């Protein structure tokens, strides 16, 4: 656990709208998942927008204090995300992040001793549940512990907080499992809009039995398979969305009189504007598709050209979060409000085909690797069989050209071991992504649009998240692809 405290003599005054700046002043926060992509952008914006903020307690999972300090420095303090804050506060910047204590949402009581828990419960105004396991085919036991049970552990702490104003939880827009039609801004609960046959305790028992039965690499494989099997049995596409749905149900059933906000972002990608355009951490959802094409020269994609590819820049998710905190963190009303922070319900939804077209245009002018060949146009495939066969033929051709120079490879030429591994990777990626590559649902964001309407013009400038202002071609071509390149090339965009 790390706390950040900042003090300045001046702050912005907002006299209308949601009163965001007034709300942020002096408030203290507990943020889980502090080293993650979304949490770090949130932390940066809170510190930059409100210098008179109280404290930000950063939950950092670690085995000991020394390694916790190292993670804090390596993954947060030294991140280029915070370079604007460093420019503002100079050498004092790091002093804002010096004290830390270890915690883990997968442990009972978050791994806190009684003294730490008491200290936190005395100070926290807002709990932000940002930690989670996001691998689609994660181990079932791990995903259950963090995504399904983690929110309940945080709620237990929240109920002990003496001045808590709000409990805010990040879910995902894909949590309902719907693949077509309208996805409403309504909460999930077992026995309500989740099959009443689903029993979290039974699922935990299944996972525990698998842990006892299998060992080593076999244990990991079987637990990953179990998660996907159970998810698909109940109508979800993967372990991640299934266990996040359980987590929402836990919040719905256990929140009591706490004021709760659930933020459901779609595919979170690189920053639109803040703190600078194109900031990205790691290889995220769109990047593997783009890298397969631009780096590996695989001009094939399983999917529908017209499918919605619902992405949202990370800074817009953060701004929507802060606006929702200000709206619901003032009245101590024991309500549960949900916001879909998405892009498909507006006049300019991004399509999968457009994502790849814009990427092709960019990579033609600025390739990911030196080559004398132009990229081929991408062919979309409607079946995994057609996709796999075409990718296999492409890899055979590439291997033949590498070995023998230009020329047609014979159709019966076998793949090398490296080629087989490459084919297996692309086939596995396609199967894992398949529900999203044929996605025809759209997300209702009435609550989110209403939130924008309540903001003053000054707040909209400072905390904007209206996706209708995004020119997707410009964002993909000039912002997002540069962000991906910075990740791939270690800080350089080309």
From TrEMBL:
<dbReference type="Pfam" id="PF03015">
    <property type="entry name" value="Sterile"/>
</dbReference>
<dbReference type="GO" id="GO:0035336">
    <property type="term" value="P:long-chain fatty-acyl-CoA metabolic process"/>
</dbReference>
<keyword id="KW-0444">Lipid biosynthesis</keyword>
<feature type="domain" description="Fatty acyl-CoA reductase C-terminal">
    <location>
        <begin position="421"/>
        <end position="488"/>
    </location>
</feature>
<dbReference type="InterPro" id="IPR013120">
    <property type="entry name" value="FAR_NAD-bd"/>
</dbReference>
<dbReference type="InterPro" id="IPR026055">
    <property type="entry name" value="FAR"/>
</dbReference>
<dbReference type="GO" id="GO:0010345">
    <property type="term" value="P:suberin biosynthetic process"/>
</dbReference>
<dbReference type="InterPro" id="IPR036291">
    <property type="entry name" value="NAD(P)-bd_dom_sf"/>
</dbReference>
<dbReference type="GO" id="GO:0080019">
    <property type="term" value="F:alcohol-forming very long-chain fatty acyl-CoA reductase activity"/>
</dbReference>
<comment type="similarity">
    <text>Belongs to the fatty acyl-CoA reductase family.</text>
</comment>
<keyword id="KW-0443">Lipid metabolism</keyword>
<comment type="function">
    <text>Catalyzes the reduction of fatty acyl-CoA to fatty alcohols.</text>
</comment>
<dbReference type="Pfam" id="PF07993">
    <property type="entry name" value="NAD_binding_4"/>
</dbReference>
<protein>
    <recommendedName>
        <fullName>Fatty acyl-CoA reductase</fullName>
        <ecNumber>1.2.1.84</ecNumber>
    </recommendedName>
</protein>
<feature type="domain" description="Thioester reductase (TE)">
    <location>
        <begin position="31"/>
        <end position="321"/>
    </location>
</feature>
<dbReference type="InterPro" id="IPR033640">
    <property type="entry name" value="FAR_C"/>
</dbReference>
<keyword id="KW-0560">Oxidoreductase</keyword>
<dbReference type="GO" id="GO:0102965">
    <property type="term" value="F:alcohol-forming long-chain fatty acyl-CoA reductase activity"/>
</dbReference>
<keyword id="KW-0521">NADP</keyword>
């Amino acid at each position: 656990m790390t706390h950040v405290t900042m003090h300045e003599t001046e702050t912005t005054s907002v006299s209308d709208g949601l009163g965001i700046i007034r709300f942020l002043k002096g408030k203290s926060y507990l943020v889980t998942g502090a080293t993650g992509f979304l949490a770090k952008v949130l932390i940066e914006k809170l510190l930059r927008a409100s210098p008179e903020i109280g404290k930000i307690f950063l939950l950092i999972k670690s085995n000991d204090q020394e390694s916790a300090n190292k993670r804090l420095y390596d993954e947060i303090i030294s991140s280029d995300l915070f370079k604007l804050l460093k420019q503002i506060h100079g050498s004092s910047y790091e002093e804002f992040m010096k004290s830390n204590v270890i915690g883990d949402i997968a442990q009972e009581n978050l791994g806190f001793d009684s003294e730490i828990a008491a200290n936190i419960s005395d100070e926290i105004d807002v709990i932000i549940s940002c930690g989670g396991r996001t691998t689609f085919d994660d181990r079932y036991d791990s995903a259950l512990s963090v995504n399904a049970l983690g929110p309940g552990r945080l709620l237990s702490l929240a109920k002990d907080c003496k001045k808590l104003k709000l409990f805010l939880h990040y879910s995902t827009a894909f949590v309902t499992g719907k693949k077509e039609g309208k996805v409403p801004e309504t909460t999930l609960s077992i026995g309500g809009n989740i099959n009443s046959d689903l029993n979290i305790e039974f699922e935990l028992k299944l996972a525990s039995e698998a842990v006892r039965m299998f060992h080593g690499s076999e244990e990991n494989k079987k637990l990953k398979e179990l998660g996907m099997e159970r998810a698909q049995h109940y109508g979800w596409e993967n372990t991640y969305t299934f266990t996040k749905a359980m987590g929402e149900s836990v919040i719905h059933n256990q929140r009591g009189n706490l004021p709760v906000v659930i933020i459901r972002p779609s595919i979170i990608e690189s920053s639109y504007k803040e703190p600078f355009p194109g900031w990205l951490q790691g290889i995220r959802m769109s990047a593997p598709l783009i890298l397969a094409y631009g780096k590996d020269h695989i001009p094939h994609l399983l999917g529908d050209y017209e499918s919605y590819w619902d992405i949202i820049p990370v800074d817009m998710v953060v701004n929507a979060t802060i606006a929702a905190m200000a709206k619901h963190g003032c009245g101590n009303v024991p309500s549960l409000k949900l916001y879909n922070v998405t892009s498909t319900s507006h006049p300019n939804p991004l399509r999968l085909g457009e994502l790849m077209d814009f990427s092709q245009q960019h990579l033609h002018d600025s390739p990911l690797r030196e080559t004398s060949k132009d990229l081929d146009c991408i062919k979309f495939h409607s079946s995994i069989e057609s996709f796999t066969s075409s990718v296999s033929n492409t890899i055979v051709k590439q291997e033949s050209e590498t070995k023998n120079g230009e020329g047609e490879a014979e159709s019966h030429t076998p793949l090398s071991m490296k080629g087989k591994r490459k084919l297996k990777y692309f086939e596995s990626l396609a199967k894992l992504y398949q529900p999203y590559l044929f996605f025809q649902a759209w997300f209702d964001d009435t609550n989110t649009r209403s939130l924008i309407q309540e903001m003053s013009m000054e707040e909209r400038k400072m905390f904007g998240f209206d996706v209708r202002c995004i020119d997707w071609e410009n964002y993909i071509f000039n912002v997002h692809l540069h962000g991906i390149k910075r990740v791939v090339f270690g800080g350089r965009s080309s």
